[in-house]
Amino acid sequence: MCEHAPACPAASAPDREAARVIARHPGQGWGLLRDSVVVFEDTAALLPDGTAIEPHRAAPRSSTDGLLPGAALPRGGPRAVLARS
Question: Taking the domains of the chain in order of start, what are their residue ranges?
Fold first, then answer.
């Protein structure tokens, strides 16, 4: 499935959300991962077999996400981040 190493985890794996994003729809609040898992802004997920995963605490963000683990958002939340850009 994946041509990169390490390959994306399977949809049934506990770390399924580590798969690469292939389609992102932020205006609608969801994204499609390479393992066919649909992830939602509230951290819920929908597996390819139709199983729904309840919202859960998101994994810590990395520097590639724009925030470092433990870093607080500027006062004003995400909109303040956009305003600074």
Answer: 16-84
> CB within 8 A of 32, min separation 6: which ones?
21, 22, 23, 24, 38, 39
Q: Where are the alpha helices (DSSP H) in the chain?
A: 78-84
Residue indicated by tokens 């389609």: 23
Q: CB atoms < 10 A from the CB of 85, how many?
A: 5
Give 24's strand partners: 31
In b/e form, how buried is each residue of 31-66, taking b as 16+ CB within 10 angstroms?
bbbbbbbbbeeeeebbeeeeeebeeeeeeeeeeeee
- pLDDT mean by block of 10 residues, the chain; 85 residues: 79 88 92 93 92 77 49 49 48
Other CB atoms within 10 A of residue 81 CB: 13
Q: Considering the entire predicted model, what is its pTM?
A: 0.60
